[in-house]
Every structure is written in C-alpha cells, then in structure tokens.
Design goal:
alpha+beta, 53% helix
Length: 105
C-alpha cells in the first residue's frame, strides 16, 4: 500500500495546529470564515454531506469528499472524524493540489 499524500499533508496541518475536526468545530470554522478547505469523509452520513455542501456553498468555502472516517481521523491523530476543516491558508492550498493529483491518478 503506497502512502496517501493527502492524508500525510493533513497530518502535517494537524501538527501545525492548522486543522479543526468534528462537526461542531468544522461548522464554527466555516461560519467564522476561518476555514480554507473542508474535507468530508466519503462514508459520512448523507445528512452530514448535504449540510456541509450547502454551508460551504453559502460561505464560499472549498469542500472535498475524501477517504473514510477512520482514515481521516487517524491522519490527524484522532479516532474517527467525518469532517475536518483546514484553517491555515498555505496548508489548505497544498492539500488542494494533492487532492487534484489524487483524483487524476
């Protein structure tokens, strides 16, 4: 299994305190315009996906659906996470580039 560069970048962002996770924290970051990128787990509930899709569209925040809850949580040193917001602009841009590469491979 080759290493996942998106999740690795997310781990770096977490160590740099550039990530918030969990529905409440992610929602708060988006509404406070502190989130530059929101990542939702592919296996999150449809209600969660719909809520964040609508919220990110309204607040003009980029959103991506990637990995599963376990992998997403593990990458930031937690157990399970359905939602993660990247609050550091530079790290968010780097993760977006990795996401683009991951979708084209």
């Amino acid at each position: 299994m080759k290493p996942d560069k998106v999740l690795s970048m997310l781990g770096l962002a977490a160590k740099a305190k550039g990530v918030v996770s969990g529905e409440y924290q992610t929602e708060h970051a988006v509404k406070a315009n502190k989130a530059y990128l929101v990542i939702i787990a592919d296996d999150a509930s449809e209600n969660t996906k719909k809520m964040f899709r609508s919220m990110c569209e309204f607040y003009k925040t980029e959103i991506a659906f990637y990995a599963d809850r376990e992998a997403l949580g593990h990458s930031i040193g937690r157990e399970f996470r359905s939602s993660v917001a990247v609050t550091d602009e530079g790290l968010a841009e780097a993760i977006k580039k990795r996401l683009m590469q991951a979708t084209t491979e």
